[in-house]
Amino acid sequence: MVDNIASFFRELEPADFYLLSGIEQGMRFSEWVQREEIPKYAELTAEEVDYRIDRCMRHELIERKTIQYEGYQLTFEGYDALALRTFAERDTFAGIGAPLGVGKESDVYEVQSFRPMALKYHREGYTNFREVQREREYTADRDHVSWLYTARQAAEREFETLEGLYPDVSVPRPVDQNRHAIVMEKLTGAELSHAKLESAQVVGVLDLILREAAAAFEAGYVHADLSEYNIFVDDDGITIFDWPQAVGTDHENARELLARDVENVYDYFCRKYPNETPEAVDLDALAADLVRDEFDSISAYTE
Hints:
Structural class: alpha+beta
Distance between the termini: 50 Å
CATH architecture of the largest domain: 2-Layer Sandwich
Number of strands: 13
């Protein structure tokens, strides 16, 4: 999506962004913003709104619904464009590069700056809202929670967590955040699920991951979704990423979630490196020592 936006981003005019911002404001109160309400939100005349709607529809930044009345909402491309404009105004980065990863809940792109950085767009909520929309008749519900809110909250939560963890825990360095987007340090190395560790490295890497989980707990956080898909491995060690679902250690289920993270990672190593991973490990005792920051090596927990 972002690469499509980047191709015509410079063609967009200030008033185009007024329209997009106006629709964004209107979506706080209704899933589809009535055409008659847009001039008020966008601070544009009705005639200017008509012109800007045509431009933004042409670039697929907004979409129209004509059930009961004419309504508009942002597409994710439109939301992307608003975040990109804010980053450009802040001089956060100079340009967008190649995609680094595109998934169901986020898209990540390389961005051009004085150091390697990555731009992550959260997509949480969008698919579910589209499915709900297809299955029900349209109503203007002022008590709804939009996909914009869901995605923005995920980005804000992840950015705040990264700020709370960095640099004491090996996570990407947070740089900037706006709406549903985060700018952070670009990771090096390979995702653990794709990495091929040497036999002599297996226990050492597993110990590193568990020590970082202990450090995160000491800093006040539990990842709560730790797996081989959100750990990077390189020559300098490991980095844990994707923290939008993290919980504080004061959460009532924090210790259970930490134990689940430990079990997930341990089970992965047992599957991929069965000959090198210690067997019959007391995971409950291990997780308890992580909480107390008394963990040293997984080899000490074999039963």
